[in-house]
Amino acid sequence: MKRRKFIKDAAVAGGATAVAASTFPAPAIAQSRIEIAMVATWGRDFPGLGTGAQRFAKRLSDMTDGRMNVTYFAANERVKAFDSFDEVASGNAQMYHAADYYWKGKHPGWAYFTAVPFGHVYSEINAWINFGGGQELWDELAESFGLKCMPWEIQVSKWAAGFEGNQLP
């Protein structure tokens, strides 16, 4: 699969994913295979958000020839939909795919990274996150929960570029 096509197709509108600070446990790396559990708030085959997350998981696994295997767990398959944040924060899963405003009960700041600020549309929120200091605020909030957050549509190309030229174990 061509990497550019993967990066272009991996964009998942409206979803944000968090990766735990200690994403890859040492035993998985030592075995030359990285296992990643992605829990989601969407049902399996939910149009758009659910299917986009499933495609991302499969394409990442395919792109690495299975050396990095992402297993997608839809809502209620591994944990209840709204327990996905806690599943990642506790280290039981490595990634979640959800809308961060679901976590506003944990901290009201989470809403700013999905639907707020000020009624902006998706592209305006992305501009704020990527060019207006939003990512730094998101990092500060997420770090207090042991997470690293990023919007896939813009950031996936930067994240995937980090693998270029590197050998996976």
List keywords for this structure.
alpha/beta; D-Maltodextrin-Binding Protein, domain 2; 5-stranded mixed beta sheet; 7 helices; 5 strands; 37% helix; disordered N terminus
Describe the structure.
The chain is built from seven helices and five strands. The protein is of the alpha/beta class and 169 residues long. The protein has one domain: 3-Layer(aba) Sandwich (D-Maltodextrin-Binding Protein, domain 2), CATH 3.40.190.170. It has a five-stranded mixed sheet with strand order 3-2-4-1-5. The longest helix has 15 residues. The radius of gyration is 15 Å and the shape is globular. The protein starts with a helix and ends in an 8-residue tail after the last helix. The N terminus is likely disordered.
CATH fold field value? D-Maltodextrin-Binding Protein, domain 2
* Assigned CATH class: Alpha Beta
Q: In DSSP terms, counting alpha (H) and pi (I) runs of 4 or more, how many helices?
A: 7
Low-confidence stretches: 3-25
User: What is the CATH-assigned architecture?
Assistant: 3-Layer(aba) Sandwich
CATH superfamily: Bacterial extracellular solute-binding protein, family 7
Roughly what fraction of the amino acids lie in strands? 15-25%
With strands numbered from the N-terminus, the spatial order across the biggest sheet is 3-2-4-1-5
The domain count comes to: 1
| Overall pLDDT | 77
The proportion of residues forming helix, as a percent range, comes to 25-40%
Count the beta strands: 5
Structural class: alpha/beta
Can you summarize the main beta sheet? 5 strands, mixed
Order of helices and strands: HEHEHEHEHHEH
First and last CA, distance: 20 Å
Shape, principal axes of CA atoms: globular
Radius of gyration: 15 Å
